[in-house]
Amino acid sequence: MKEDTKAKLNQNHQHGSQQMCRTIEVVATVDHIDMSPPVMYPVVVAANTGDDLNLIPPLNFAMVDNGIFRSGFPDSANFSFLQTLGLRSIVCLCPEPYPEANTEFLKSNGIRLFQFGIEGYKNAPYHSMKHTGVTIWSFMTEPFVNIPEDTIREALKVVIDVRNHPVLIHCNRGKHRTGCLVGCLRKLQRWCLSSVFDEYQREESIGINRKR
């Protein structure tokens, strides 16, 4: 595929006018989903030098599976670290416009952005969403996240497509919205519900401890 040197903005609309996903393309458009087993993507870091001290991972960074990572919102201090991952794609679950510095970093490193704008809600009551092929939950935590079914389905398609790997999933703090998407991925991987919730709560508590 021939790489397009100019960033293109694509918009996918739900029910005509509602925006579901915004992408910045630096590679050719994906036309189908590849469900083949993931390829191993080892993280390669150069030999120890003084520059290694500048390799700062984003908040709440963790590996989800081969070629899949999660974190809070990266900033410029994390760019050197992200380069060591050899990312092809980033899935952002925040609705706000992507920062200019981050966009330039993606363009200069040939990384494609998939942005699914999911609002975060604080102090909202517990709510259980209906079954949609994979189980989608809302958790009794703050901020409460109400995830639109079609949006989470499209985000999952991006995450499981191995041609987008290595991929980084992030929201603001890398806990609730990211945790919900990872939880849905775990159900596709046939995890039992207790294990899914355990992972979600563990990542949430780690995030809380890191804030202190």
UniProtKB/TrEMBL annotation:
Q: Locate the Tyrosine-protein phosphatase domain: which residues?
A: 60-212
Which family, according to UniProt?
Belongs to the protein-tyrosine phosphatase family. Atypical dual-specificity phosphatase Siw14-like subfamily.
| Record gene name | LOC111283623
InterPro entries found in the cross-reference section: PFA-DSPs, Prot-tyrosine_phosphatase-like, Siw14-like, Tyr_Pase_AS, TYR_PHOSPHATASE_DUAL_dom
User: What's its EC?
Assistant: 3.6.1.52
Alphabetical list of Pfam families matching this protein? Y_phosphatase2
Provide the catalytic activity annotation: 1,5-bis(diphospho)-1D-myo-inositol 2,3,4,6-tetrakisphosphate + H2O = 1-diphospho-1D-myo-inositol 2,3,4,5,6-pentakisphosphate + phosphate + 2 H(+); 6-diphospho-1D-myo-inositol pentakisphosphate + H2O = 1D-myo-inositol hexakisphosphate + phosphate + H(+); 3,5-bis(diphospho)-1D-myo-inositol 1,2,4,6-tetrakisphosphate + H2O = 3-diphospho-1D-myo-inositol 1,2,4,5,6-pentakisphosphate + phosphate + 2 H(+); 5-diphospho-1D-myo-inositol 1,2,3,4,6-pentakisphosphate + H2O = 1D-myo-inositol hexakisphosphate + phosphate + H(+)
What species is this protein from? Durio zibethinus (Durian)
Q: What is this protein called?
A: diphosphoinositol-polyphosphate diphosphatase
